[in-house]
Amino acid sequence: MMWYCPIQGTNSRLLLVIFCGKEEPQMARVCRTAKEFAEAVKDNEEYITIEGDLKNGVLRIKATGKIAWGVCVASLAVAITAIAVSPVGGGAPAGAGLVMAAPAAATLGAAVVPAVTIGVCAGGVGVLNTLRDKYKIIEKNDKYITLKRK
Question: How many CA atoms lie within 13 A of 119 on its CB side?
């Protein structure tokens, strides 16, 4: 059994997760946007709770197989780089980035948008690789998922 108690932090929203059993109380960083999630992964948070539409994209990224991910990550890297270096108004580099995301879209489906958004917020695909390699899903329901660092 668990209880959730929201705590307001100075830089982010935090959630105190209290487990009844062998585990000690843990702090989980709550993320609702790609930017918050990218920062949480880059900060090596022990527990991350993802809410909203971002949750579905993260689930899809975690569910992608290793070989398919190898194809996806290459096209995502090009797309993220093209979008990151494009001028604010868009233009040719941003358009090229979206075209290069097509192979990833074939595998990830609608999750390609959160994947590219997380990558742009984090500055590259490294955060997506960290998500896949260093975090496991410990709780999942209709409203949120909770990840724990391996």
Answer: 29
Helix (H, G, I), strand (E, B) or coil at 50: strand
* Whether the predicted model's global pTM rises above the 0.70 cut: yes
Question: In the numeric block, which tokens belong to residue 142?
Answer: 């209709």
pLDDT tens-digit profile of 114-132?
888 898 888 888 999 999 9
Q: Which domain holds residue 145?
A: 2-55+134-149
**50, 66: one domain:** no
Q: Are residues 69 and 114 in the same domain?
A: yes
DSSP of 20-39, one letter per residue? SSSSPPEEEEEE-SHHHHHH
pLDDT tens per residue, range 62-104:
998 888 888 888 878 877 777 666 555 544 444 444 555 566 6
Number of domain units in the chain = 2
Between helix 54-63 and helix 34-42 the angle, nearest 10°, is 50
User: Taking a C-beta distance cutoff of 8 angstroms, is the pair 51, 32 a contact?
Assistant: yes
